[in-house]
Amino acid sequence: SLLESVPTDFGKASIDRQATMLAAFTALPRFLTSKKRLPRAGSEADAEAFVKLAKGSSVVKDVVAAKRLKREPQLQHDVLARFARTCRGGVAPVCSFIGGSAAQVGP
User: d(Cα 19, Cα 24) in Å, to the nearest integer?
Assistant: First the structure.
């Protein structure tokens, strides 16, 4: 399953953070399907709806089962809300900068 193939590096991220990010990326397509759009940038209402979707998913139970954990990971509300408020951001300026820099390097 997906959860068993996700590498775990406990030195870099806690199991709570890993479960939170997994819940965020799982909730994003659910939000898109239900609202027919991504969460609006900076919208508190969309962030709260997104957090509710993320916390309502079975991700935490799946993580506990896959990792055989003794305690249930706690989803971090602030991380989920920040994810929702910023996931619609554009990366085109970053891509053009990297592309322009890479083009000048040459073979």
Answer: 9
SS (H, E, C) the chain: CHHHHCCCCCCCCCHHHHHHHHHHHHHHHHHHHHHCCCCCCCCHHHHHHHHHHHHCCCHHHHHHHHHCCCCCCCCCHHHHHHHHHHCCCCCHHHHHHHHHHHHHHCC
Q: Token pair of 67, please?
A: 């990792």
pTM value > 0.85 = no
pLDDT of residue 11: 52
Q: What is the pLDDT of residues 54-95, one digit of tens each?
A: 998 888 888 778 777 788 888 899 999 999 998 887 767 777
Query: Which amino acid, residue 103?
Result: A
Question: Which of 61, 79, 82 is CA-nearest to residue 71?
Answer: 61
